[in-house]
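Question (not urgent): is this output format expected?
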Amino acid sequence: MRRISYIKAIVLTLLCLSCIEEENKDQFKRVRLVTGGMTTRTDSPDEDLISDANILLTNSEGVIEEHIYVQGSKTAEVRMLDGKKYSVYAIANLGYKPKIKSVKDIEEYCYHFAHAKDYRLGIPMSGKISYTAGPSRDIKVPLKRAMAKARITVDRSGLDKDVLWKIRSISIVNGPKKTYLFRRNSVADESDFFRPDFTLNEKETEVLNSSSQEGVDLYMTENFQERFSEDLCTYIEIKVEYFSKEYYTAPDKPLIYRFTIGSEANGYSVERNNFYRFKISPQGKGLGKPGWEIDTEPLKQLITGITLSHEEIEFTYKGETAQLSSEVVPEKADKKNIFYYSSDPSIATVDSNGMVTAQDEGECRIICRATDGSETEAECEISVKHYPPYMKVMPGTTLTSRVGQDIHIYCDFFPPNAKFDIGLEELNYDRNRGIYDYTIDKDGKGVTLHCKKEGAGLLYFETGSPINQSEMIFIVINPSTGQISEAQAEVDILEKLQGL
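Got this back:
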């Protein structure tokens, strides 16, 4: 007997484990890397180029479950357990698969540039999201470039007519040669800068010496510095050939202009994934510090993710409604406009505010899509099932009460959006007879009778389409002690029917 009990316990345990395994079924998800759009575009380097990518998946315990390395693709397949929470890390353009054993290794990973123009093979990028595995197959990871872009333009309109002011080179001074990918990068040692500096020569800056309004772009690695230091802050240096009636520069002794990024109030930091604009405006003889404007602004960010308030909605009758709401990622996205549409309006429709209305039995999807050109979207699964209509009067259709008591009568019906008539004519007739007073429920589906006088009354409830049913409720109000005769109750009812 004991052996049989053991066998039963083992079988039950195996069945439970089987159920758990089925509930936590793993699924393949597609991780998609999103670089977003920049305010301006250049072909060299290609700012959106992803030549290779490392995708790392960590669970809620901080364990790395997968590390995938792909080349020439912006997507990768990862395996996830439904309902489980993960962190998804992405690193683009390393050129290799690094040895990473822990979350700390990921978040402290430092990328080393081979040379000052190493980014021309693909700007290093990184991104991280938290994700709970669900029915959606696509996971979008927005990436941030580890570098900032500076655009230099020149306005010579303020120079005297006899002045030659010609740019020979532009350099990024104190450009870091390494950067952390998942935390703020700040250089503390001069040995961590490139020597010589990254420089655009005379040919590369030729457009700045023409009448064209075009500029040149430079790329700078992130470097946070609260205070200005010529040894640690990243800045732009411009060398200029000069000639006027009074002065001129020797070939090896150009004028030098230095432009810092930032201010005393806000710090002198180069922040990754930012776009800095410099407009150089020499004035008069051009020998003083030229007027210049710096306009720093974040990159134009596209919507990279949409979260809906519901992943699925089940409707039980035609005309039933539900409100969908959405949140977009990132919060700093320049355009947050989205629109909703239905994959099958014959099943369910949706308006511009996300209000979904069931139309007919079946299944469809409500899609919420961004209108900023990113094509980012999210979906809500819709199921419409028609259940049979019904009407039921509670606590019944033949009731008794006593003078001084209250009795509550209400109607339960489906679908709840059907038209309902509580029969005010009958209620008012009995109130005028003094049998009872009444209070209608706030939702209009019930009434409380305040019994005042012995007698018999009649109520009438009626529902419209698709129920199309009505009920008459008979109520006998007895005196506080004893009860009225059946004959008296019958007379009261007949009088009421004749009066109506």
